[in-house]
Amino acid sequence: MLDTTLPQPRTYQPPSWGFLLPLMVPLLALFALYFSTAKSIVSIWDSSDTFTHGYIILPISIWLIWRRRGNFFAYPPTPYWPAVAGLALLGAAWLVARQADVQVVSQYAFVMMFPMAALALFGVRLAKSFTFPLLFLLFAVPFGEVFVDPLINFTADFTVAAVRATGIPLLRNGTRFEIPTGSWSVVTACSGVRYLISSVTIGCLYAYLTYASTRKRIICILLAIIVPIIANGLRAYMIVMIGHLSGMELATGVDHIVYGWLFFGLVMFIMFWIGNRWREDEAVTPVPVDVGAAGAAANAARRQRMLPAVIGVLLVTAMWPALSAWFAQANYRSAPARLDPVAVSAPAVAPFNNWKPAFMTPDASWNAVTRATPDGVPVLANVLFYHNQKSGKLLISSSNMLAEEEDAYHAIGAGLQSVTMGGAPLVVRETRMSGPSGTFLVWQWYWIDGHRTASSIKGKLLQARSKLMLRGDGGGAILLAAPYLDNNSDKARAALREYVAANGMAIERSIEAANAR
User: Fold this and answer.
1) How far apart are CA 449 and CA 70, in angstroms?
2) In this structure, what are the phi and psi dihedrals at residue 478, rounded to the nearest 5 degrees?
3) pLDDT tens for each residue of 443-458
């Protein structure tokens, strides 16, 4: 990300803008070739307040390059063919990510094509002089929500510890806690992920523009990561204290968001104001003088050398969207999805609560509640099947949750459990849920292309392999739930084990049959 001091350029006949502008054609072509990926990035900017900064990343990158436009004349563009191989690898990564419907990977692969294409067209010396402006484009990719849960947990831990240290009695349940004056909950909006993303983006830009030494730049970036995390914990604590001291009249609504941004802005201002004391002005690299000898001939020779590189970049970047379109057509299933219910031997009973998973609408599904054990513990089975997957209809997605934040149900713990099904081991994801009707356990796993897994990452890889081998993208999610009886999780877990042993294979066979149609 950091530029390296370059050797003093020698005097030579600089290229004309008429020669340089055609080199931009392959870079502009990337937007057209990967329009769907570019559109997916912009749609997230438009729909999420967390990533609205993405709109200014490209203009800033262009401005940073324009500031050093003399480099185009200081270092002659020279094709660098190994970078074309790098473009091919990025294209392959984009293709696999598209088949697996891992949007963030396809977006990063697409954005990384710009610095890689610049390296292929401009050569090492010229591209190296624009290292930061080119890599700054990566901040345009909407990434960071993976840190939401860890940040929520840190903020909750920090706030609870600070409130207790203040001497206020507190009762905690997961990320929710109660104090004598009211109840509080640390949710996504309180995680500080927006502060962190904004701070890192601004911090990297500030470090590049303010410092010249690598050490100072690294220190600045590290502080831009650490300071907002701690500041968000302090912000959450102060909001709780304002609410507590005001009898829950202040900082309990939208005003606590306003307080949070004001506090964040103040922290960032102080951090950068202090950092400005050690600023280092950038040394200007002199641009060689146009010697004027055979300028037109020199540019014509360069153009002839660059033409194969331009064609090579265009061909390599164009082949992957074409392959993606072919795979999409080859894997499409025209038959409507049908998932046959499994005949469970245990008797059906009334639902023990009104919980249902907050998953994207499947192509086919069934659910039933049965009493599976002599202890009388009911088991709720939700089976969801997806095929011809696309945005808004995915088997594995961060949007698929056991409960949304505004729901009455929420997770209070998670882990893995090992069970046996059909004589083979099965690892399931276990989540403890709490709601109006009490606590219950949820077991979850996926069936994809004849394989079962509780891992979202492995599931995505299985899905990509299935599509690359032209076996379609069909798959199912199995979610089983059992309530605590007598506040006993062992009884709920035993009921789920018995249900899996008796009916798990039949459920997977029904998904396999739906996938084969």
Assistant:
1) 55
2) -110, 120
3) 999 999 999 999 999 9
